[in-house]
Amino acid sequence: MTVLETRRLGTKPPTVTRLGLGLAALGRPGYINVGHGADLGPEKSVEVMRANAHALLDEAWAAGVRYFDAARSYGLAEEFLGSWLAERGYATAVGSKWGYTYTANWRTDAEQHEVKDHTRPTLLRQWPETLAALRRTPNIYLIHSATLETGVLDDLAVLTRLAELAASGVRVGLSLSGPAQADTLRRALNVRIDGINPLSVVQATWNLLEPSTGAALAEAHAAGWGVVVKEAVANGRLTARATLPQGVTDLCARLNTTPDALALAAALAQPWADTVLSGATTKQQLHSNLSALNLKLGPEELDALQDVQQAPATYWQERAGMAWN
C-alpha cells in the first residue's frame, strides 16, 4: 500500500492527501473533459459506470489517495462513492457540494445537464440526498460554484443553515468558477453569522492557463482556510490530447514528463494548496497524474511557465464552449 504525503485542510481536520480524486467525470456519462466519451467506452449504463468508478477508486486507494470529491450534480458520483466506501469498509476524507441539480437523465446529448440554484430550499433538499447517497456525513460540504451574482453569500437563510452544519462538525465552504473567482472568495472571507464565519474551505480552479485566483487563495490559506485546487489540467486542455502552449511542451521535454503531471505539479508547488484534485477517468490517467507527486518544480521552472497563462475572460469563454461528450 502506497503512503502519500498528507496535510491538514487549513488549520482544522480533516487530514487529506496532497493529491485527491474528483468524481466529476466518473459519475455521469456526459462531461466536458477532452476525450471523456472515449475514455468511458461505448457502454455507459449505470451498472458499467458504477463498476468503472469502483475500479478506479480501488486503484486510487491502492496508490494512497485519501481524499475524494463529489457533488449532487455529478450524476451518480455520490452513490458510486458511497457504495464503494461501504462495500470496502474504508474510512477516508470525503467532500461534496450542493447547488446544482443533475438533469441530463443519463444522456450525453441532453439539452441541459444541470440546473443551478443556490437558495435554501435546494440546500435543505440536497443535504439529506447527499447523506443517503454517501451513506455517511461528508467531512466537507461546499456551495457549488458560488458567484456574487447568485447572491448566496448574502443569503441569511442559507448561511444560517450552513452555520448549523459547521457547528455540527462539517467543514462548510464554497467552490468557485468563472473569471471573478477572486472577488467571490474575498467576499466569502468576510461572511459573518453572529460574528463568526461558518465558511472555512474553498475549492477553486487554478492552473497554468488560469492562475488569476492565486493571490486570493493565499489570503484564504493565511486566514486558516482549507484550499482545494480543481481543474489543474484545465478539463484536458493541459494534457497530451490538446494543442499545448510551447512553454509547456518545452518544459515537458526538458523534464521528461507529461503535460498533465507538469500541470498538477505546478499546482502542488503553490504553498497555499492543501490538496489538488485529479479528475482521472482511466487508470492510465490516474497514474500519469500521480507522477506529479515526484516532480518538484522550482522557481526557474515556475517562472518559465508564466508566459502560457491566458486572460481570465478568454479562459472561461473557451471553457464554456467545450462540448459535453
TrEMBL record:
Signal sequence region: none
Domain NADP-dependent oxidoreductase: 46-308
Record InterPro entries: AKR2_Oxidoreductase, NAD(P)_OxRdtase_dom_sf, NADP_OxRdtase_dom
A Pfam family hit: Aldo_ket_red
Residues forming coiled coils: none
PANTHER family assigned: D-THREO-ALDOSE 1-DEHYDROGENASE, NADP-DEPENDENT OXIDOREDUCTASE DOMAIN-CONTAINING PROTEIN
Protein name per UniProt: Aldo/keto reductase
Species in which this protein is naturally found: Deinococcus oregonensis
